[in-house]
């Protein structure tokens, strides 16, 4: 089930879920940290086979929710891996008061992974916020909803005609890969956003992995220029 993207980094695709009547694919990223601990980003639904495959990589030490939308299965993972720490921005923590989190994620990565994974908090919108992660060893940028990159085939299979019109109008399709329009138009100011774009474009990003849509494996800088063009 796990697909190796680079040394110490894997992805795994899960089942589709519905959100406000729209069907979305799901995807997790799994990273083996230098200390051998396993870092799981945006945990998907976890069956016995996947849990065993991840456990075979090493002890699961971190379960990460990047935004308040990506939290559905994190409690299930915690039950399977009770020693793991749970992380998320303050918005996720407020939504999941039933879980015990570590300090809220911000622009500053915690000591647990700061030397290996850089993070950026996109937090100037009234609609949503998200923490992006850059895995330095593989030069992989990990985004949840900040880029959605649906193919025509996926949309024709899962979305109704009026929904496909929205996807094209919003630019959440291959060839653009933008963040959803309702997010983009609700930024109070774009100073930090423009600084983030410049920072990301200055990094040697090789791969771009998003939760929803086609991953960009190689040519990451070209993809970033495309998917951040709206900023």
TrEMBL record:
Pfam family name, one: DUF4336
InterPro entries associated with the record: DUF4336, RibonucZ/Hydroxyglut_hydro
Protein name: DUF4336 domain-containing protein
Organism phylogeny: Bacteria, Pseudomonadati, Pseudomonadota, Alphaproteobacteria, Rhodobacterales
